[in-house]
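Lecture 7 notes: from sequence to structure.
We start with the chain below.
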Amino acid sequence: MTSLLRLKTRHKTFVSYHHADEAEVAAFIDYFDHDHDVLISRGIGASMAGDVINSTDADYIKRRIRELYLRDSSVTLVLVGAQTWGRRFVDWEIAASLRNTVTSSRNGLVAITLPSMSETPGRQPPARVSDNIDGENGYARWMKYPTSAASLARMIDDAFNRRTSHADKVNNTRALRMRNA
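Predicted structure tokens for the same chain:
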């Protein structure tokens, strides 16, 4: 008897978040990466290398983040908490993710609201994510927290596929955030 099971593709996914949400992010990664193998998570953690932080050259910042942290990822997942919208490192990671060069392709982009933010009025994703959302037509998507491993897998697959199907919709023209809000 032949089994016709669909093999699940696990994309290398860069996880961008504000350090204040670290406990929720760790639970997300434990559940969806470690327990259910939906993604292969990558991330910077609480701090970046000094040569990236201390620069004010936008192209240099984006290039170094891409080279050091994003080089083997194909999707960037922004986990949105209460202060994520105003964090400069998150903005830098998103800008680097949207950068398309001869040596590295841009990442797919999806933002997910963390459970602690689900009922917060006025919640918003980082501005650079908003620049790329246009319903079904945008490059990026802003989604509710996944209810299952399968729903997260669909979100990540969609972001991965939008790298080519929606490449002409990318907007990465916003100046880099140089201070936290």
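Points to note: The first strand starts at residue 11 and ends at 16. The domain at 11-169 is CATH 3.40.50.2300 (Rossmann fold).
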